[in-house]
Structures are given as C-alpha cells and as structure tokens.
Amino acid sequence: MRIGIVCYPTFGGSGVLATELGKALADKGHSVHFITYQQPVRLNIFSANIYYHEVRVPTYPLFDYPPYEVALASTMVDVILNHDLDLLHVHYAIPHASAAYMAQQIVKQKSGRNIPFITTLHGTDITLVGKSKMYEPVVTFSINESNAITAVSNNLRDETYKSFAITKEIEVIYNFVDLKRFDKKPIDAFRKVIAPNEEKIVVHASNFRKVKRVNDVIQVFAGLRQHVPSKLLLVGDGPERPVMETLVKTLDLQDDVRFLGKQEQIEEIYVISDLFLLPSEYESFGLAALEAMAAKVPVISTNAGGLPEINIHGKTGFMANVGDTKTMTEQAIALLSDTELHAQFKTAAFEQAQQYDIQNIIPVYEKLYGRFCRMECYA
Hints:
Elements: E1 2-6, H1 13-27, E2 31-36, E3 50-54, H2 68-83, E4 87-91, H3 93-111, E5 117-121, H4 124-127, H5 136-145, E6 148-151, H6 154-163, E7 170-172, H7 179-182, H8 188-194, E8 200-206, H9 214-224, E9 230-236, H10 241-250, E10 257-261, H11 267-270, E11 275-278, H12 287-294, E12 299-302, E13 317-320, H13 325-337, H14 339-354, H15 358-370
Parallel strand pairs: 1-2, 1-4, 2-3, 4-5, 5-6, 6-7, 8-9, 8-11, 9-10, 11-12, 12-13
Helix pairs in contact: 2-3, 3-5, 9-13, 12-14
C-alpha cells in the first residue's frame, strides 16, 4: 500500500504514535509518505520505503497568521497525485481532518479518484481544543466526513460521542509501544551519575502543559525524598517549565531534581528508573506511561481519562484522584520502600505493556486500511 500519514512532527503522543506507525508499516514493505511542516522527531532512520514531504507555508504581509491548513491541503493533493497514494491517515483532528477532506474533494475533481482518509483522534483535539465554539462545527463535519474514525482509548471514544454529533462508528485502536526498543540493559555508569548513593530514580515525561500537572510531580517527590533517598528526572519542555524551575528552587530541591529537556532516546532514561509519575488532569491514553511500563517501570498516575485502561491499580502501579498528592506520595513511599513489592510491580508493568506491543497493533491498522484500499494494493 501507498499511505500518506499526516501528523504533528513534535514529541507529543500523536506525533510519536504516527511516526512509529509509519516506520513499522515501512518495515513491512508499505510505502509511507509523511506530510507535515518539519521532519518528525522520531523519524530518525533511513528507509527506502519512507518519504518525507515538507509543507511550506508562504508568508505575505496580508496574512497575520499564515494559512497552514490551505498549504497542507495543497501539499496533500500534490503528494496524492504525484505518488498515486492509496489513502491518507491523519492524526489529530485539528486541522488535519478538515485539510484531508479539502484534499479529497480537489483530487476527486482533478482525477476522478475518491481518495479515502482515516482520522485518528488522540486527545486534546477532542477534549480541549475541539470543544471550542470556534472549531466545533469544522471538527464535527470533518470527522463525520472521514471514511473511518479511530480513537486511542475507549474513554476518548466515549468523550467524542459525548461532545460532538458524530454519526459514524468510532473504532478503538489502542496506542502501542515497540517492546524491542525498550529491551535494553541499564547503563550502570549512567545510573551512578544520576544517583551516586544508590538513591531511587523517579521520572516524569511530558510537554509541560498545565494539564500535565508537573507541579504535582514535584510536590509528590518532595514528600517522597523525606522518607526514601531519591532523585527526580523531568523529561520534556513546554510553557510550564519556568514555573516548575522556580518551584524546585522554592522547595530547595535543586540538588535532587534534573530538567533534561526533550530526549529522543528516552528509553535510556526509563531503563535506569524506578518509578514513573503521571498526575495529569486528563490523558486520553497515557503513551508515556506505557513506554515506561515497557521498560519495566511501575507507574503512579491519576485515574483520569484513559489511564485506568493501561495502569492497573495495585498491580502495575497505583492510581489516585487528580490533585491528591498526599495519596500519591504515600503510594510512592510504599512502593519504593518494599523491594519485593516493587519487583512484582515491575514484572506486571512489563506484562501489561506486552499487550500493546506494536506487532499486535500494526495488523489491526493494516486490516483497517484494506477496507478502503484499491484492489491493486494487493497485486
């Protein structure tokens, strides 16, 4: 198959999943064409089956805001016609689904072909941005015009039906993780640099937006280190980082907290970690938590959104209500103070992650594509 993948090229969950999906499809012999405004951060390999098409947005004095959606749709049309794509798979509803619909109509007019497009919903495109009165009519229309709609969790599917007048079936295809990528031996020298006195290593990874509640991570860690010698690694970057740096100084945690910024090789960090914290206000799925579990790291998270679908309370980790840092602190102390319990949770976390291995999920996407693919796809 010749597949066009449209995504944001950033470290966010939707971009990571889209890129890893494309790489896996290319490994299976499909031609994959990424269409976005810069090369995706996880697109760090060479493959004869992977193509990257940059969306260039001209700037004119007339435009205060360059019309990215128009440039994206035009690029889609160009790639579809010049590379004879079989279908488009767009990730994140805004603005990719509406741009795909526009491209579909233009291609139909130009060539007579009705190029199908599949929309995958990831989270804030539905639960936050999409609910805006400014965007809701377009989001609803473009989702309903999609040839197929998927969501990364049951919770997100239900939220979409609740928030939008969707008239089509939304199929749940879970996020996935490449277990081989996280099958690494911890680098002892790296761990000793971070925790020279054999302290426990706690990690959090996100885009540092308010919804991630990174302040709760720091508060939980502050309580934990009073009972268990520990170090905290904060991976990622975003608007809340300056505020979090100030909080770390206010709590006098500078010696025990490291801001690592964005990391492409996050598996190297997870494999030396003892606990992953994700106290988000909402997660449609929680891909960062799943990746930690793939590295045999137990998770303490909130019970918000789709997190209960992957983090099994009392087995792979613990959960608490949003903002309940007291309970999360107690859970962290209990888990990191009990060697046997921690070992049990590590094993259970990995076993849970195995269900979401990329090798189990890719065939589901291939079957979905096959429903809309022309007969010559299989020639």
